[in-house]
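Why do we care about 3D structure at all? Because function follows from shape, and shape follows, mostly, from sequence. That is the central idea of this module. The next example makes it concrete: a single protein chain, its amino acid sequence, and then its structure expressed as C-alpha cells.
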Amino acid sequence: MKVIEGDFVLDMSRASKWERFDRSGSPLPQGMSLVDFVIEEPRQMILLEIKDPFRWPDDSASPDKRAGNGRRQESFRTDRLIHQSLVPKIRDSYTWLHLMGKSSKPILFVVLLGFDRIFPESPGLLVMFKDRLLARIRREGPELWKIPYVRDCLVLDPARFSRAFPQYPLFRQSTQAGGDEPVQEI
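And the structure:
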C-alpha cells in the first residue's frame, strides 16, 4: 500500500500494522493535533511526521504560496517548528494513543524533513535539530516530564530515512523534475 504525504510517497506494504493518524474528516478533541502516521512494529511504535519546509514552489506558484515557503524555512531555522508543530503533535499523539489504550510499546518519534533539494549533505543540521527537538519533548516547562513518553527521536532527510527504514521505501513525486518519471526513488 502506497500513501502520499505532500511530495512524498511511502510504501507501507511491509508494515504489519499502520494507520494514517492525521486523516482529515475524523473528528478530534478540540485543539489536538496528530502526527501523520503510526507504524506498529514488534518492539516499538513509530510515530512519523513528514515536513518539507524547504520545498521550492514551482514557477506557477502564487506569491502567497512562495511567501508561505519562506515562513516554513524560517520556522525551521528558529525553534518555531519544534515548539509550535512537532512537540504538540507528538504529545497529542501520545495522549491519544494512551487514552485509547494503545501505548503499550516504546515510542520512536521520526521526523522526515525534506532537505534533499536544498541541503544534499545535512547531517550536522539534522543532529542539532534532533537534539533541540528531543530536549523540548522531554521538558516543556520548568521541570522534566516525570514520564518519558518518547524513547527517542530521529530527524532524517529522505536519503537517511531510506537507509534507516528500508522496509518502508520512500519516493518523491517529481512534479518539478521535468523528466518522464512521475516518481523518483530516494
